[in-house]
Amino acid sequence: MDYQTYIFVLMQLCLLLTIIIASLRLTLPRTVKGTGTWALACLAFIFTAVTLLSLPDVSPVLLLLFANTAYLATVILQVHAIRRHLLHRFPSWQQCVSQIMTSFIPVAALTLVFPNQPARVAMLMILTIGYYAVAVRCLLADGRARKALGGRIILAAFIGAIGIATVRMWAELISLLTPAGNVADTSWFREPYIMAFSGSVVCSSLGFMLLATDKLRIMYERLAVHDPLTGLLSRRGLVEMSEFELLRQQQHGQVIAAVICRIEHFDELGFRYGNGAAEAALVTLAQTIRQHTHETDLAGRYGHCELIMLFPAGLDDAQYKIQQIQTDIQNIWIEARALRFQFAISTAMEALQPGVQVFEHVHQRLLARLQPEPVHENAVLVSIKANGEADTVRVEQVLRD
User: Fold this and answer.
1) CA 41 to CA 20: how far, in whole Å?
2) pLDDT value at position 182?
3) What pLDDT shows up at residue 226?
4) How far is CA 143 from CA 35, 146, 161, in A?
């Protein structure tokens, strides 16, 4: 090639490198600034550069081995990234490097078994089709990713890559049977093939970016309406969902039962056994509530140790479920600081009238029923030591100590 062709190809490579790196830097949240993204970009660039700048009659075996390794490693890293993304685990740079090293083994084996270049490239395309088929199957199996825009873009890019690899495979196989020469080495075939492969990398990177953005949006929405400690609805989530339930109540004439539940002597539990023990009691109560509530019921954290539940089925259903929750709580023991302790809960319930605001009703009536009882000599915290010895301590003694 003359110097003008080299300059033109160099400009193409610089533009292609810019596009690939810019797209792959936005691939996955935990690999945005990691080695994995740069490895994928550099491998795609190396494969493109070696293929465009090398001539069939002067390309050494080592150069082809390097280009094929870069190609297969790029494919494996793409498949590895999508599988990790769907499994909610992101690849570290050590895993990316191990994938690159692993891709060298089949390429080296193909080079030794198939000295003929067309046969070697055809087998490489078969491996590529297999890897992309695994990624497509993972995408189709994940309903959320399949319906998302990013998942559709990745799916289209991977299917396009399968088509590109299939065309390249048949071109190499046909060249083995025809004495006219290798069609895949001609410029009119090689350059569109390289650009199509690079385009699939860019499109898949864009799809990864959209998938990651969608996942972050879902995570932030969940954190906004869910309490991070208990996993129940937060105060904001309760406001939004209760408005919807009350509106449906007005339309269908249903009676919604509101229940407030509080852990008795919550501060004393934390004072004697530590904040972790008090939080464990709150989490245990939340888990018990989830076990005895349906999808149509609402449960969320209202305050420090208060939980609110809304039962669209009415007071009878609410009373039955609250009795089950109280029975389970009486049989649960929590371990903390080599001690096993129990906790008690107090509840209050009332039917919500149409048009009432849930939190105003809680403040005015339900919460008033749960005012802290004065500490008296019969108020106790019951626990059992690790050796089985009873350890019953009065609340007034805990406060005094």
Assistant:
1) 6
2) 56
3) 79
4) 30, 5, 22
The rounded distance, in Å, linking the Cα atoms of 276 and 97 is 40
Token pair belonging to 246: 């009350």
Q: Assess whether the region 3-225 and the region 235-400 belong to the same CATH fold.
A: no
Tokens of 350: 């009332």
Crossing angle (nearest 10°) for helices 61-86 and 35-53: 150
Question: Which architecture does CATH list for 235-400?
Answer: 2-Layer Sandwich (3.30)
CA atoms of 364 and 369, how far apart (whole Å):
9
Q: Is the pLDDT of residue 398 over 50?
A: no
Determine the residue type at 319: Q
Confidence of residue 393 (pLDDT cuts 50, 70, 90): very low
Q: What is the largest CA-CA distance in the chain?
A: 103
Closest of 216, 199, 182 to residue 32, by C-alpha: 216
Q: What's the CATH fold of domain 3-225?
A: Rhopdopsin 7-helix transmembrane proteins (1.20.1070)
The whole-angstrom separation of Cα 237 and Cα 229 is 14
Question: Residue 205 is which amino acid?
Answer: S
Helix, strand, coil percentages (3-state) for the chain, rounded to 5, are: 70, 10, 20
How far apart are the C-alpha atoms of 269 and 152, rounded to whole Å?
Answer: 52
**pLDDT tens digits for range 287-343:** 888 888 887 788 888 877 888 888 888 888 888 898 898 888 888 888 766 677 788
pLDDT at 395 over 80: no
pTM: 0.48
Give yes or no for residue 174 having a pLDDT over 60. Answer: yes
Q: Which residues fall within 8 angstroms of residue 370, CB to CB, at 6 or more apart?
A: 260, 262, 306, 346, 348
Q: What is the 3-state secondary structure (H, E, C) of 83-122?
A: HHHHCCCCCCHHHHHHHHHHHHHHHHHHHHHCCCHHHHHH
**Domain parsing of the chain, residue ranges:** 3-225, 235-400
